[in-house]
Write a structure and sequence with these properties.
119 residues
């Protein structure tokens, strides 16, 4: 899932085609509704504060390894999330397989070329 605001870089045809080629689900906030991106913004803030800004990296590969480790081993398995009833995402997903299903609602996406047909 890739959720973004309506920045021209995210709405460009080239970027959207790349996401589609990767099989990503594309979601975009509606105009003048910045809170729709709140959970994504919160995740990025957490990633920056608890991982990226918390250490120095010698190489890009080292950065990638630590980000992967943080997301898979800390954020998804250990870190408690208030939006999930103070459970980790892994615990939350396990509960969903045993009961009520929950899925994020994808928002509509207009590509840059559809928003600005003359471009």
């Amino acid at each position: 899932m890739h959720h973004s605001d309506r920045g021209s870089n995210y709405a460009s045809n080239q970027f959207v085609k790349r996401l589609e080629a990767l099989g990503a689900l594309i979601s975009m906030s509606r105009p003048a509704r910045p809170w729709e991106n709140g959970k994504c913004e919160s995740f990025i803030k957490t990633l920056k504060r608890e991982e990226i800004d918390a250490r120095r990296y010698r190489t890009l590969e080292e950065l990638r390894e630590h980000i992967h480790e943080f997301i898979e081993d800390v954020y998804n398995k250990v870190r408690l999330h208030s939006a999930l009833g103070y459970r980790s995402p892994e615990e939350f997903e396990q509960a969903q397989t045993q009961g009520v299903k929950w899925s994020p609602r994808a928002l509509s996406l207009l590509r840059h070329e559809e928003i600005y047909p003359d471009v």
